[in-house]
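Troubleshooting log. The previous structure file for this entry was overwritten by mistake, so regenerating from the original sequence record. Sequence copied from the archived sheet and checked twice against the printout by T.R.
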Amino acid sequence: MKILVTGGLGYIGSHVVVELLNENFEVVILDNLSNSSENVLDGITAITHKKPEFIKLDLREKSAVQDFFKKYSDVSGVIHFAASKAVGESVELPLLYYENNLNTLIYLLSQLKDKNNAQFIFSSSCTVYGQADELPITESAPTKPAESPYGNTKQIGEEIIKDICKVTPNLNAIALRYFNPIGAHESAEIGELPLGVPQNLVPYITQTAIGMREELSVFGDDYPTEDGTCIRDYIHVVDLAKAHVAALKRLVNAKNKDNFEVFNIGTGKGSSVLEVITAFEKVSNTKLNYKIVDRREGDITAAYADTHKANTELGWKSIYSLEKALLSSWKWEQKIRS
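Regenerated output below.
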């Protein structure tokens, strides 16, 4: 079965491509390389001993998307990662985010809706919940007004897919609401490569530990948590990648109960920023230089998943510990800086 992975050379996309190839799916990658590198193909090939087909294409070009599907008419499944994802940047450049994250989605769905049978997996986010009223967060928790254009594109994206699925019975879709992906493949052949200053905690930790960054800022220690720092659900990227394969198989085998479904993908356990720092120092045997600074606007106090639905319906469960994920991030950082 031929699967299109958009943004397949990015952080999460590349790990999903590896898991798809390991399960003997045929993969075509589309990526415009705006936030990735063609060198990632070498890492994927080194791990799987298979080289997926790669096409450099910007999904914002509607005619290019149409031409792709004319040529690759045998593509029946799409896993869609291609999107801009920096919260702060989205506040500065909202139109870029709405164009890149929504137009591309519409162009893809426009091609899939006319197929006899099509599967679509959407890369969504726990940002759709905002600060949830209850923890852990279930899929039935209400979505809150988005804190950023990025978060809004995830909410609107889900609504677009839900609406098209209502009137397109031959299209089956699953939105996976990720919590906080971290880590790298155990081979250290692929991992997270943020451009510029990292927006996420773990790459900032590893860059500080290796000497690229002078100091790690911990944004606030006065939250109503045990140690005063924010709590998040950190999931190993390989666990996350395997969830995509489980979701795709659910659709391929017609096990879905509706033609649009949503699943939380996390560990079900929350860890505070200071707990993550302590765990990293332990596995890396490295002391981190960090300081407490003022809270960052838009940060919520705590978010961690109720994963019961994914565990039972997808037959998927996270298996990697926080320590294992952090150690893989550290090995990846050491490799790319060596």
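The two ends are 38 Å apart (CA to CA). Archived copy saved in two places this time.
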